[in-house]
Amino acid sequence: MALLExxxxxxxYGRVNALRGVDLRVEEGQIVTVLGANGAGKSTLLRAILGxxxxxxxxxxxxxxxxxxxxxxxxIGGGLVLVPEGRRILISLSVExxxxxxxxMRADTQKVRTEMDAIYDRFPNLAERRHMLASCLxxxxxxxLAIGRAMLAKPRLMMLDEPSLGLSPLFVSKLFDLIRELNRxxxxxxxxxxxxxxxxxxxxHATVLELGRVVMAGDPATLAAxxxxxxxxxxxxxxxxxxxA
Length: 245
Hints:
The structure is a single chain. By secondary structure, this protein is of the alpha/beta class. Helix content is 37%, strand content 24%. The strands form two sheets. It has a six-stranded mixed sheet with strand order 6-7-8-3-9-10, with helices on both faces. A four-stranded antiparallel sheet has the order 2-1-4-5, covered by helices on one side. The longest helix is centred in the last third of the chain and has 16 residues, at 169-184.
Protein backbone atom coordinates (compact mmCIF):
# COMPACT_ATOMS: atom_id res chain seq x y z
CA MET A 1 0.00 0.00 0.00
CA ALA A 2 1.33 3.44 -0.96
CA LEU A 3 1.93 5.99 1.78
CA LEU A 4 0.33 8.63 -0.47
CA GLU A 5 -1.95 7.93 -3.40
CA UNK A 6 -3.47 10.69 -5.52
CA UNK A 7 -6.09 9.50 -8.02
CA UNK A 8 -7.63 11.52 -10.84
CA UNK A 9 -7.11 14.79 -8.97
CA UNK A 10 -8.67 17.87 -10.52
CA UNK A 11 -8.46 21.41 -9.13
CA UNK A 12 -9.95 24.52 -10.69
CA TYR A 13 -9.60 28.22 -9.91
CA GLY A 14 -12.84 29.56 -11.32
CA ARG A 15 -12.90 28.47 -14.97
CA VAL A 16 -9.18 27.71 -15.04
CA ASN A 17 -8.31 24.04 -14.57
CA ALA A 18 -5.04 23.92 -12.63
CA LEU A 19 -4.89 20.12 -12.29
CA ARG A 20 -6.43 17.71 -14.78
CA GLY A 21 -6.75 14.11 -13.68
CA VAL A 22 -3.41 13.84 -11.87
CA ASP A 23 -2.31 10.44 -10.53
CA LEU A 24 0.65 10.21 -8.14
CA ARG A 25 2.02 7.65 -5.68
CA VAL A 26 4.65 7.90 -2.96
CA GLU A 27 5.72 4.61 -1.44
CA GLU A 28 7.01 4.43 2.12
CA GLY A 29 10.67 5.46 2.18
CA GLN A 30 10.71 7.04 -1.28
CA ILE A 31 11.78 10.43 -2.58
CA VAL A 32 9.38 11.36 -5.39
CA THR A 33 10.01 14.51 -7.39
CA VAL A 34 7.48 16.52 -9.40
CA LEU A 35 8.92 18.56 -12.26
CA GLY A 36 7.46 21.08 -14.66
CA ALA A 37 7.59 24.64 -15.89
CA ASN A 38 6.06 27.59 -14.04
CA GLY A 39 2.28 27.29 -14.19
CA ALA A 40 2.33 23.50 -14.62
CA GLY A 41 0.35 23.00 -11.40
CA LYS A 42 3.12 21.73 -9.13
CA SER A 43 2.44 24.00 -6.13
CA THR A 44 -1.31 23.53 -6.57
CA LEU A 45 -0.76 19.77 -6.35
CA LEU A 46 1.06 20.07 -3.01
CA ARG A 47 -1.53 22.47 -1.61
CA ALA A 48 -4.35 20.17 -2.68
CA ILE A 49 -2.64 17.18 -1.04
CA LEU A 50 -2.38 19.21 2.18
CA GLY A 51 -6.04 20.27 1.90
CA UNK A 52 -5.37 23.98 1.39
CA UNK A 53 -7.32 23.99 -1.89
CA UNK A 54 -10.43 21.84 -2.49
CA UNK A 55 -10.46 19.26 -5.29
CA UNK A 56 -13.01 19.47 -8.06
CA UNK A 57 -12.72 15.71 -8.57
CA UNK A 58 -10.50 12.79 -7.63
CA UNK A 59 -9.23 11.44 -4.35
CA UNK A 60 -6.30 11.55 -1.94
CA UNK A 61 -5.37 8.69 0.37
CA UNK A 62 -2.65 8.99 3.00
CA UNK A 63 -1.37 6.25 5.31
CA UNK A 64 -4.24 3.98 4.37
CA UNK A 65 -7.13 6.40 4.85
CA UNK A 66 -9.11 8.66 2.55
CA UNK A 67 -8.21 12.26 3.43
CA UNK A 68 -9.86 13.93 0.42
CA UNK A 69 -12.30 15.88 2.60
CA UNK A 70 -10.17 16.21 5.73
CA UNK A 71 -9.08 19.72 6.81
CA UNK A 72 -5.36 20.56 6.68
CA UNK A 73 -4.84 20.32 10.47
CA UNK A 74 -6.08 16.71 10.46
CA UNK A 75 -3.68 15.80 7.66
CA ILE A 76 -0.79 17.54 9.42
CA GLY A 77 -1.65 15.72 12.64
CA GLY A 78 -1.48 12.46 10.71
CA GLY A 79 2.05 13.20 9.50
CA LEU A 80 1.56 15.01 6.19
CA VAL A 81 3.62 18.22 6.31
CA LEU A 82 4.41 20.93 3.74
CA VAL A 83 7.48 23.19 3.64
CA PRO A 84 6.05 25.94 1.42
CA GLU A 85 7.75 27.87 -1.34
CA GLY A 86 9.40 30.98 0.10
CA ARG A 87 9.87 29.25 3.49
CA ARG A 88 7.22 31.41 5.28
CA ILE A 89 9.45 32.12 8.26
CA LEU A 90 8.08 34.67 10.75
CA ILE A 91 10.97 37.12 10.85
CA SER A 92 9.53 38.99 13.86
CA LEU A 93 9.92 35.83 15.99
CA SER A 94 13.11 34.21 17.23
CA VAL A 95 14.61 31.14 15.62
CA GLU A 96 13.41 29.00 18.52
CA UNK A 97 9.90 30.45 18.44
CA UNK A 98 9.71 29.64 14.72
CA UNK A 99 10.79 26.06 15.42
CA UNK A 100 8.19 25.67 18.17
CA UNK A 101 5.43 26.59 15.70
CA UNK A 102 6.02 23.21 14.12
CA UNK A 103 5.11 21.50 17.40
CA UNK A 104 2.02 23.54 18.22
CA MET A 105 -0.28 20.50 17.83
CA ARG A 106 1.83 18.29 20.11
CA ALA A 107 1.36 17.73 23.84
CA ASP A 108 4.54 15.70 24.48
CA THR A 109 6.57 18.71 25.62
CA GLN A 110 9.59 16.81 26.86
CA LYS A 111 9.93 14.88 23.61
CA VAL A 112 9.62 18.12 21.64
CA ARG A 113 12.55 19.54 23.62
CA THR A 114 14.63 16.43 22.90
CA GLU A 115 13.83 16.63 19.20
CA MET A 116 14.61 20.36 19.15
CA ASP A 117 18.02 19.64 20.65
CA ALA A 118 18.57 17.10 17.87
CA ILE A 119 17.63 19.72 15.27
CA TYR A 120 20.14 22.14 16.81
CA ASP A 121 22.78 19.40 16.61
CA ARG A 122 21.94 18.92 12.93
CA PHE A 123 21.90 22.69 12.22
CA PRO A 124 24.62 24.35 14.36
CA ASN A 125 23.97 27.76 12.76
CA LEU A 126 20.43 27.68 14.13
CA ALA A 127 21.69 26.67 17.57
CA GLU A 128 24.02 29.66 17.67
CA ARG A 129 21.15 32.01 16.76
CA ARG A 130 18.29 30.33 18.61
CA HIS A 131 17.40 33.45 20.62
CA MET A 132 17.91 35.91 17.75
CA LEU A 133 15.19 37.10 15.39
CA ALA A 134 14.78 34.90 12.33
CA SER A 135 15.37 37.99 10.20
CA CYS A 136 19.09 37.66 10.99
CA LEU A 137 19.32 34.37 9.07
CA UNK A 138 20.51 34.03 5.49
CA UNK A 139 18.18 32.52 2.91
CA UNK A 140 19.85 29.14 3.26
CA UNK A 141 19.60 29.23 7.04
CA UNK A 142 15.92 30.20 6.79
CA UNK A 143 15.34 27.14 4.58
CA UNK A 144 17.00 24.94 7.20
CA LEU A 145 14.77 26.58 9.83
CA ALA A 146 11.68 25.84 7.73
CA ILE A 147 12.71 22.19 7.43
CA GLY A 148 13.50 22.00 11.14
CA ARG A 149 10.07 23.46 11.93
CA ALA A 150 8.46 20.82 9.70
CA MET A 151 10.45 18.06 11.41
CA LEU A 152 8.94 19.04 14.77
CA ALA A 153 5.50 18.26 13.32
CA LYS A 154 6.63 14.58 13.21
CA PRO A 155 6.06 14.05 9.48
CA ARG A 156 5.72 10.68 7.80
CA LEU A 157 5.77 12.50 4.46
CA MET A 158 7.48 15.87 4.04
CA MET A 159 6.46 17.88 0.98
CA LEU A 160 9.00 20.46 -0.16
CA ASP A 161 7.95 23.21 -2.58
CA GLU A 162 10.93 24.68 -4.50
CA PRO A 163 13.32 24.43 -1.54
CA SER A 164 16.44 25.48 -3.50
CA LEU A 165 14.89 28.64 -4.96
CA GLY A 166 17.13 31.66 -4.34
CA LEU A 167 19.90 29.72 -2.60
CA SER A 168 23.61 29.84 -3.38
CA PRO A 169 25.19 26.77 -5.02
CA LEU A 170 26.81 25.87 -1.69
CA PHE A 171 23.48 25.86 0.15
CA VAL A 172 21.80 24.00 -2.70
CA SER A 173 24.33 21.18 -2.28
CA LYS A 174 23.79 21.20 1.50
CA LEU A 175 20.03 21.11 0.98
CA PHE A 176 20.10 18.02 -1.23
CA ASP A 177 22.53 16.30 1.14
CA LEU A 178 20.00 16.99 3.90
CA ILE A 179 17.09 15.60 1.86
CA ARG A 180 19.03 12.38 1.26
CA GLU A 181 20.00 12.20 4.94
CA LEU A 182 16.40 12.64 6.14
CA ASN A 183 15.30 9.99 3.66
CA ARG A 184 17.95 7.56 4.93
CA UNK A 185 16.57 8.19 8.42
CA UNK A 186 13.19 6.92 7.20
CA UNK A 187 11.37 10.07 6.04
CA UNK A 188 9.39 9.91 2.81
CA UNK A 189 9.69 13.02 0.63
CA UNK A 190 7.57 14.61 -2.11
CA UNK A 191 9.76 17.22 -3.78
CA UNK A 192 8.75 20.00 -6.18
CA UNK A 193 11.99 21.47 -7.46
CA UNK A 194 13.20 23.78 -10.26
CA UNK A 195 16.73 22.32 -10.17
CA UNK A 196 15.81 19.39 -12.39
CA UNK A 197 19.23 17.73 -12.43
CA UNK A 198 19.62 17.58 -8.67
CA UNK A 199 16.00 16.55 -8.15
CA UNK A 200 16.33 13.62 -10.55
CA UNK A 201 19.67 12.62 -9.02
CA UNK A 202 18.17 12.15 -5.53
CA UNK A 203 14.70 10.80 -6.40
CA UNK A 204 13.42 7.23 -6.61
CA HIS A 205 10.56 8.22 -8.91
CA ALA A 206 9.75 11.30 -11.00
CA THR A 207 6.60 12.83 -12.45
CA VAL A 208 6.47 15.64 -15.00
CA LEU A 209 3.49 18.00 -15.17
CA GLU A 210 2.52 20.21 -18.09
CA LEU A 211 -0.51 22.48 -17.84
CA GLY A 212 -1.94 20.42 -15.00
CA ARG A 213 -1.52 17.01 -16.64
CA VAL A 214 1.00 14.23 -16.05
CA VAL A 215 2.95 13.92 -19.31
CA MET A 216 5.84 11.72 -18.13
CA ALA A 217 6.43 9.52 -15.10
CA GLY A 218 8.86 6.82 -14.13
CA ASP A 219 12.44 6.04 -13.20
CA PRO A 220 14.47 9.28 -12.80
CA ALA A 221 17.48 7.98 -14.75
CA THR A 222 15.24 6.97 -17.65
CA LEU A 223 13.51 10.35 -17.64
CA ALA A 224 16.83 12.19 -17.42
CA ALA A 225 17.92 10.44 -20.63
CA UNK A 226 14.69 11.27 -22.46
CA UNK A 227 15.35 13.86 -25.21
CA UNK A 228 12.09 15.68 -24.46
CA UNK A 229 13.02 16.20 -20.82
CA UNK A 230 16.60 17.12 -21.71
CA UNK A 231 15.44 19.78 -24.14
CA UNK A 232 12.81 21.21 -21.83
CA UNK A 233 14.52 21.10 -18.44
CA UNK A 234 18.12 19.89 -18.61
CA UNK A 235 19.50 22.08 -21.36
CA UNK A 236 22.00 24.84 -20.77
CA UNK A 237 20.35 27.83 -19.13
CA UNK A 238 17.19 25.95 -18.22
CA UNK A 239 17.71 26.32 -14.48
CA UNK A 240 16.71 29.43 -12.60
CA UNK A 241 19.71 31.56 -11.74
CA UNK A 242 20.70 30.90 -8.13
CA UNK A 243 21.15 33.87 -5.88
CA UNK A 244 23.50 34.02 -2.92
CA ALA A 245 21.99 32.94 0.36
